[in-house]
Amino acid sequence: MEKLKIQGGYTLDGTVRISGAKNSAVALIPATILAESPVTIEGLPDISDVQILSDLLEEIGGKVTYENNELTVNPTEMVSMPLPNGKVKKLRASYYLMGAMLGRFKKAVIGLPGGCHLGPRPIDQHIKGFEALGVQVTNEQGAIYLRAEELKGARIYLDVVSVGATINIMLAAVRAKGRTIIENAAKEPEIIDVATLLTNMGARIKGAGTDVIRIDGVEQLRGCRHSIIPDRIEAGTYMIMAAGMGKEVLVDNVIPQHLESLIAKMREMGVRVETNPEQVLVAGRQPLKAVDIKTLVYPGFPTDLQQPFTSLLTKAAGTSVVTDTIYSARFKHIDELRRMNAVIKVEGRSAIINGPAQLQGAKVKASDLRAGAALVTAGLMARGITEVTGLEHIDRGYSHLVDKLSGLGAVIWRERMTEQEIEQFQNS
Ligand code: EPU
Questions:
Q1: Distance in Å, CA 131 to ligand 1 centroid
Q2: What family is it from (predicted)?
Q3: Cβ(366) to ligand 1 under 6 A?
Q4: Which of 3, 156, 239, 346 is deepest in the core (most CB within 10 A)?
Q5: 61 C-alpha vs ligand 1 centroid, how far in Å?
Q6: 22-227: CATH homologous superfamily?
Q7: Does the predicted TM-score (pTM) go above 0.90?
């Protein structure tokens, strides 16, 4: 087991290249199950979620090769093998195996998904969608059993705007008989990316990226080659770090339109941000002004950037209020930031930050992926050394974090934990 160590206070300067989007990758990889010939996805990030999903495809008979961030899946010999627990529990996105296996085999048995603990994360809207398509769904001993005689197109209104439910229903509906209409669909760029792959495979989808998606089911889907979109959350994380500690950081391989809400807030704080079609330049500068943010569905401020942005706000003069309307309990990083000298209190769904505070290095624990990003951001801005444990969360979503930050001039490294530290970590 390893921990991350950061010697804070170093200025970031230079260029960082963004990897493919984690939250697209975790849907694109299961989507390959639907094809009847090999699918290649290029530009995948080197993260553990990609590895786990590739392993799961092999468990059901897929032939998988992965080289130079390019994954090729030959799905011809796949079978609808039950995947009750084990690896599926390691990530939230294993729920996409449900939609994809339903589309291909009309049946699936999948363990309830794991992933970050951010408060209640039900999948009732996924189930509602599957049932509307004619699937019988039962929950037995922690696994979901899905079976349909035939998948039939349906009109489905999502009661909650959900990225996962929108994609999962799309995955099943592309092979249903007739037309499916998803109303109140999520509009995140990752949904467009998945729809693009499915369309290249021969699916008929209209409206991805709007709140009404129409899908006309087809008999067969074929293999193709797909290039993934860049990770807007990884890009946003480096932009936030650059706003805190950057001289001039060029964030390369991004789609700036995906980051408009973040760019607007950073400019409101007094940060200089310039964009061109594939890059964002961030010039951090003192002093930063306090701002309020409220997380919303896309194109609003993303909940996945709320935690690192909170770290940045500790450096801003005045009182900032951060409200998370998507997840009720995405505040586990706050106690850790307090250990580092931040002045923050949580009231209901809001964190109230009083700044500026000079953060101090401390031993802190990442409780989830973006909490990890928040603590690394804080560590870069802090005086002295910060030690971050819980790296397995960070490794799920940030490709080559240490190399990328070292390339910008940060002093950051991984270190093996002692047995005593591992014991303390496991008991904390
Ligand atoms: N919700 C329901 N019922 C459902 C589905 C969702 O009530 O059936 C609620 C959730 O509890 C939440 C809200 O609806 O309050 C939005 O959830 P959504 O389904 O959109 O989230 P998700 O698909 O499970 C994805 C990302 C998350 C990101 C959210 C919101 C993946 C694998 N995960 O989760 O990413 O926070 O959308 O944008 O795509 C992360 O990357 O750190 C991460 C957690």
A1: 20
A2: Belongs to the EPSP synthase family. MurA subfamily.
A3: no
A4: 239
A5: 29
A6: Enolpyruvate transferase domain (3.65.10.10)
A7: yes
